[in-house]
Amino acid sequence: MPNGRGFYPDFIIGLEGRKTEDGALLADPKERFEMSQEAPKALAEHQVYGRVMILAKDGVRWMTVDYDEQARKPVFGAEFRLPDAPGFGARALLAGKAGGRSLRPPAMPAAPNISATPASGIFPELAVVRLRHDLEEECLKAGERGTIVHVYEGGSGYEVEFIKGRERPLLVTVEPADIEQAD
Fold this sequence. Notes:
Elements: E1 11-14, E2 24-30, E3 45-46, E4 50-51, E5 53-58, E6 61-68, E7 73-79, H1 90-95, E8 97-98, E9 101-102, E10 128-131, E11 145-151, E12 158-162, E13 170-174, E14 179-181
Parallel strand pairs: 2-5
Antiparallel strand pairs: 1-2, 3-4, 5-6, 6-7, 8-9, 10-11, 10-14, 11-12, 12-13
């Protein structure tokens, strides 16, 4: 960890397509991540395998934990998705090594403020949105929340994943007029 103390993550996972020795990703899931007490873990970085993926539950979803340099505290990053795991911490991996030690990655951006309207008028991927009206064909009601998983060119449409109360996630294509940012 940045303070020099040892840290032993729970898992070492080999992932095809990961650009580390043996495709290794270090991961440490926490049912309850104590943001104030475990802050140094959000900055932990192995000299060979890169940044440790810290995961924590935000209600029912598993989220990555990033570090907000400006606020000097851990913050929830993105919802964990297995296809994103090989590229986790890619900036640190691309930075390479210097003098036998790992270069620290650039500061992680703060978690997006999802209550504000996007300045561009286009919602970003991973924004949490809610439906403005019922989508009867998909059995979705106005106010249900989902996460944007794909933005079509110019924000002309969105793929939104809805989970609450369902056995499996429901992926729905919506138009900009169908959604608004969640509180």
